[in-house]
Amino acid sequence: MSKIADNIIPLYEAHAQRWDDIRRSNTAKGLMEADWLKRFTGLLPQQGAVLDCGCGAGEPMAGHLIREGFQITGIDSSSSMIGICRERFPQHQWLVADMRALTLPQQFNGILAWDSFFHLQRDDQRRMFPRFAALAADHAVLMFTSGTSNGEAIGTFEGQPLYHSSLAPEEYRALLSENGFDAVQYVENDPHCGNHTIWLCRKTS
């Protein structure tokens, strides 16, 4: 499985424009993530700073937040996707970076890892929680998507295997607590959001 996991970055880079086309096409009938983004932004200060980990080409998630008045720093391992972000939203900060090694000089009011965090192998996911804590300002909001149980799964994108993994919910809760976060809301397989499993969390210390 590790070889498939290691192919995540080159896979998205090779098909950056196709991924952007799919994401924008899927939102033509409405943004299914809108309710969760409303919950996320409802906990943020106005015009707060948001870090989007795995921002892709900036639409629809970062674009929605920008239109709501938030200041975005987006990171993605695909230089092609970051190039699209810079063209679309030049007044915001876009960085080619791997979240697993991310260090930045600022802290953020919100951290988003939507449909990106679950591409990391499980040990890498475990190591992300201290990193999230270091990047989070006081009372920051963290929202990410995961699986529903401990394990690995392989999907497909453009005819190639696409890696996903998840920890058990109990381990996510323990890691969040150990790193100063409370789970505000957790929903498995939300039928109103494409069956995503979603964590909405708040930094408490």
Summarize the entry for a quick read.
By secondary structure, the protein is an alpha/beta fold. It has eight helices and nine strands.
Description of the structure:
The protein has one domain: Rossmann fold. Helix content is 35%, strand content 31%. The protein contains eight helices and nine strands. The strands form two sheets. It has a seven-stranded mixed β-sheet with strand order 3-2-1-4-5-9-8, with helices on both faces. Strands 6-7 form a two-stranded antiparallel sheet. Strand 4 (108-113), helix 7 (122-135) and strand 5 (136-146) form a beta-alpha-beta unit. Pfam families: Methyltransf_25. One of its GO terms (molecular function) is methyltransferase activity.
Which superfamily, in CATH terms, is the homologous superfamily?
Vaccinia Virus protein VP39
| Count of distinct strands | 9
Overall geometry: globular
How is the largest sheet built, in terms of strand order?
3-2-1-4-5-9-8
User: Treating each run of at least 4 consecutive H or I residues as one helix, how many helices?
Assistant: 8
Averaged pLDDT? 96
CATH topology: Rossmann fold
The low-pLDDT segments are none
CATH class: Alpha Beta
Order of helices and strands, N to C? HHHHEHEHEEHEEEHEE
Protein name: Methyltransferase family protein
Organism: Pseudochrobactrum asaccharolyticum
GO biological process, one term: methylation
GO molecular function: methyltransferase activity
List the helices and strands and how they pair.
Layout: H1 2-6, H2 8-14, H3 16-26, H4 34-41, E1 49-53, H5 61-67, E2 71-76, H6 79-88, E3 93-96, E4 108-113, H7 122-135, E5 136-146, E6 151-157, E7 160-166, H8 169-178, E8 181-190, E9 196-203
Parallel strand pairs: 1-2, 1-4, 2-3, 4-5
Antiparallel strand pairs: 5-9, 6-7, 8-9
